Amino acid sequence: MIIDCHGHYTTAPASHTAWRQAQQAAFEAGEQAPAYPSISDDEIRESIEGSQLRLMAERGIDLTIFSPRASAMGHHVGDEAVSARWTEVNNDLIARVVELYPQHFTGVCQLPQSPGVPIENSVGELRRCVEELGFIGCNLNPDPSGGDWTAAPLTDRSWYPLYEAMVELDVPAMVHVSAVTNRNFHATGSHYLNADTTAFMQFLQADLFQDFPGLRFVIPHGGGAVPYHWGRFRGLADMLDRPAPQESLMRNVFFDTCVYHQPGIDLLFRVIEVDNVLFGSEMVGAVRGIDPTTGHHFDDTRRYVDALGLDAVDLRKVYELNARRVYPRLDAALERAGHRAGAAGTERQEEVPA
Amino acid sequence: MIIDCHGHYTTAPASHTAWRQAQQAAFEAGEQAPAYPSISDDEIRESIEGSQLRLMAERGIDLTIFSPRASAMGHHVGDEAVSARWTEVNNDLIARVVELYPQHFTGVCQLPQSPGVPIENSVGELRRCVEELGFIGCNLNPDPSGGDWTAAPLTDRSWYPLYEAMVELDVPAMVHVSAVTNRNFHATGSHYLNADTTAFMQFLQADLFQDFPGLRFVIPHGGGAVPYHWGRFRGLADMLDRPAPQESLMRNVFFDTCVYHQPGIDLLFRVIEVDNVLFGSEMVGAVRGIDPTTGHHFDDTRRYVDALGLDAVDLRKVYELNARRVYPRLDAALERAGHRAGAAGTERQEEVPA
Questions:
Q1: Total-model pTM
Q2: What is the pLDDT of residues B153-170, one digit of tens each?
Q3: B17 vs chain A: nearest CA distance in angstroms?
């Protein structure tokens, strides 16, 4: 089967998005947020079937590890209560998608982070999502300030309460920032990639994975700049008297395949061990158009991975087994949904560009 | 001949570096900075011949476009007067290196930027360095705040006074940040690469090069994350209704070869037109060690470029002609130094790892 480890619910029903705007306006006005709207199953189906699910079918993707829209997490908006409530309704909405399409989606949660608020306060929502909603991981924002980077590095002990819960629950985190308020940065064009690179360098500088051998992170967008500059990171580790990243980090850190052209994917697999790469597309997401040089969607990353010429064993690692290993709760979720490993069809349908 | 477009004077004499510390301490104490020390030609020779010049000879690099140590620019330190004085002594020291070794070095200046200070105030030092010291370009810091990114994007009109002078003088800028004060970032491990990616995305979002068709930037460190994510940037341009970067940016934006492993260099040349790549090594610099997988220095980027198998025409572009085109004042500087195109030897000496 083919598992996409990186999908965001970017097509959530309009009433959900409108409520967020009302929630923000109410906060700014010092008023109570309005009641969250009633959203019907049909509205959810409509928001999924014409976009995410259609594209998955066209591309032969069986299952997407699905989380709330990253750019809309907006941890810097409002205060802790605003973030907590927005997080809760986002995660609940993901749970409903999973409930409607258990064969095709499994949930990853947003955390109710807020600048200056201890990460302890996010542990309850992580537990609720994993233990009650059946989610298999979380998205962790290393910069809940939205571009000011006021939090401590991810290797600081202040993050440890979350890591303890992650290890206990056996769930990984995808390191994923959200919208950025500083006009120097474009969210998907620089802030996301910069955060990926920043997180990796933080991991390289510290002993986090000695303290938490069972902690796992997915660094999305192909690892930011890291694989392209793999020699630089190996050299910096050497200069800083740190162990080589291949030995010290790559049991705990994984990259996805959200790199939107063949040369980038080729580099990723040339440099990074196949055990450390999870198939992902970030669709329906950052880049929606069709590449005029190929005639296919930029984010149809399966085409690039298929073109690598990996043998069947490695291909299955990238498409399925690495995801099952990094997200161990996936097995139980798939069993609940009636999936068996390798049972689902992985044929591409003829693609009809949107 | 082989021109390295990206060398910093990281081995400047100890008394120069000590004066900077004294200057900072004086500023913090509200006192006058001490007099800048007298540095002999021998001290400069000693600081150059055993490191930069030796490595250049070993690697067959004829000429380095040489600028003050980037991480030490520290535009955020002190105030405008502190930055101006530090900039002046740095540039004067580069001029002395060039004077001692005109065959091997040509100068690029640091600018006296300071957070919140208009860029107009840097134009005088640019003119002095170009017109009086014979420099051929400048390093422009897009974030003089040292990591807070409080300046406007490089495409904002507030930067235009500098661009007008750059076009008039026909000199390019290398986009290069300095030290970073936020502990989330490592200067050479994430801040530099992030700034490269950030600058490129800023250029993609605006019409700067319509306003200044003759303006030229070198984005160092192989363009940050950009070549690895070239499909993402092409797709984002399409989504944002911007022209394709190949058409709108690549007459004005150039990348160097400071990518410290063969797969990265291979990707760079696979994705970016050869006319847009300038040979550079950033030595003696960010990464000083020897790659255990090759037995050679990580930053010996000539090895990677030589291994590409480019034909003689393209190789000469990367090693020489692109630099002459991007830095048009290089020709006059080389003529003054008695260089003729292709005249200098480019044989590698047997390398003796330091």
A1: 0.96
A2: 999 999 999 999 999 999
A3: 21
Beta bridge partners of A63: A3
> In angstroms, rounded to a whole number, what is the distance separating the alpha carbons of residues B173 and A334?
54
Other CB atoms within a 10 A radius of the CB of residue A34 amount to 12
CB-CB under 8 Å, B142 with A286: no
Sign of CA dihedral B203, B208, B209, B215: negative
Long-range CB pairs of A23-30, under 8 A, 24+ apart, other chains included: A23/A78, A23/A82, A23/A85, A23/A86, A24/A77, A24/A78, A24/A82, A27/A77, A27/A78, A27/A79, A27/A82
ipTM at complex level:
0.95
Nearest CA in chain A to B199: A184
Which residues of A are marked as active site?
282
Cross-chain CB nearest to B261 (options A231, A260, A299) = A231
Q: B102: helix, coil or strand?
A: coil
Q: Are A183 and B153 in contact (CB under 8 A)?
A: yes
pLDDT of A167-196, one tens digit each? 999 999 999 999 999 999 999 999 999 999
How far apart, in whole angstroms, are the C-alpha atoms of residue B74 and residue B180?
Answer: 8
A140–chain B nearest CA distance, Å: 15
Integer-rounded Cα radius of gyration of chain A: 19
